[in-house]
Amino acid sequence: MRYNNRGDYMKTVLKIIFSAVGAAIVLNGIALFFVSNVNFGSFLTVGFGTVIFLVALSFKKLAKWLKTLLIVGVGVAVIFSSFLIIYGKSDTVTYNEDAIIVLGAAVHGKTPSLTLKRRLDKAVEYHAQNPDAVIVVSGGQGAQEDISEAEAMKIYLIENGVKSDKIIKEENATSTYENFKFSKEILTKNFGDEYTTAFITNEYHILRASLCAKRAGIESATHLHSSTTLSYIASGVLRECLAVIKYLVLKK
Question: Which of the chain's ends, N or C, has fewer CB atoms near its CB within 10 Å?
């Protein structure tokens, strides 16, 4: 294929890139419907990918301002997503905390999802280095779950060597803020006002979780991240970008 000028060549390259990215995101979102509980992140992934793909098909026909807006928008999303991941990978745990809170995630029937298993595996690793710490597993029961997230988490931890008397269930939380709010109430009953706390969640979730912890009254919580599998990263990060914006605007 021959091009009249450098501009036409760049437009073709951008069209191919956006088409490929859009198609990959759509396929990833569709796959999530079959391997995980249906949630907003899955729909968001499909919708976001579809918009990118359709725009790419007519990229040459778009007005210049719309092309610029698209490129800037995708760029901002990539930069913000990268920031969330890089920030979350900087662990601050000391392994001397009195308690660690494991934030809940989807349960398939009675089985922890891959995302939740990864958080729990980190809790097992933490427990090996600090066996005296109490582990609070926090999460209520969702519409597609046969038992509460906390119950599924406790079962998994026990199966992986953590003693039952070191695990405390918090089964009422339906949001990140409630994870910390209700967990703090439990920890205060057990330790009084003087105790140190860490929490475990996915890397992209660390920033908002830290903000929610402070809002719930846990001012100096340290954190330990669990890594997200490639198949879940688009869904998780896209949803988290919107969640962070919502939190900053509405404080919830």
Answer: N
Q: Which two tokens stand for residue 122?
A: 């980190």
Contact between residue 46 and residue 26 where contact means Cβ atoms under 8 Å apart: yes
176, 202 contact by CB (below 8 A): no
Do 129 and 84 belong together in one domain? no
Q: Which amino acid is at 49?
A: G
* Contact assessment for residue 48 and residue 25, using Cβ atoms and an 8 Å cutoff: yes
Of the listed ranges 50-54, 116-120, 161-165, the least confidently predicted one is 50-54
Q: Are residues 208 and 128 in the same domain?
A: yes
Question: What letters, b where the CB count within 10 A reaches 16 and e where it falls short, cover 211-221?
Answer: bbbeebebeeb
pLDDT at residue 177 is higher than 60? yes
Residue 183 tokens read as 């967990």
Query: What confidence tens digit (pLDDT) does each residue in 124-143 have?
Result: 999 999 999 999 999 999 87
Print the domain residue range for 215.
99-228
